[in-house]
Structures are given as C-alpha cells and as structure tokens.
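Handoff note, outgoing to incoming analyst
You'll be picking up this chain. Sequence as last confirmed:
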Amino acid sequence: MIYESRVYRCMPGRLPALLKRFETVTLKLWDKHGIRQAGFFTTLVGESNQELTYLLAWESLAEREKKWTAFLSDPEWISARAKTEEDGQIVLNVVNQLLVPTAFSSVK
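Most recent structure output, in case you need it:
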C-alpha cells in the first residue's frame, strides 16, 4: 500500500466551506472513482487551525495516477468546485506526500 498525505491550508475563515465541500460533494465523487480515504483531520494544536489534513490509500502509483486524473477531469467535479468557490477561493495551498509504511507500522 501507498498512503498519500494531503494538507490543505485554507484562506482565512474558509475551512468550514472546505469541510462542507468534502462532506457533500467530494466524497461522493471519490466513491464514483474508487478513491479510498484513510482518515480526515483538522488541526487542534499546531501552526494553523485553518488546515485540513487527510490520508488516501492506494494499491500502487499507477492506481493513483489513473483514479486521481479521472477525478480531477470529471466535469461534475469541475462544476462543483467552481460553484463552491463562487464566494471566493477556499484553498490557499496544498502540500502532499506519498508515503510507504515501514515494516513495523501498524498500518500496512
């Protein structure tokens, strides 16, 4: 397994809009494309409380490329993203990492 860690830093005050978009739009589209989430987190203590961190689980880099590309080019996603940003940009930046579990990780 490969895990992808993605951290979305939101524009000031826009975290609620991002959370709503994931809950009402993004997760349904991920189901459609077979994208598996492994957890979502907001920051309790840290540099910023305007962040959403989540993990995705992939069988391989090829699976990630195929499914992520299909999701990003889905007309339903493109339309929904534009609609949710009518009141302004939500995400300031995204940092992602592709991670491989160690031999002693509780997550495999």
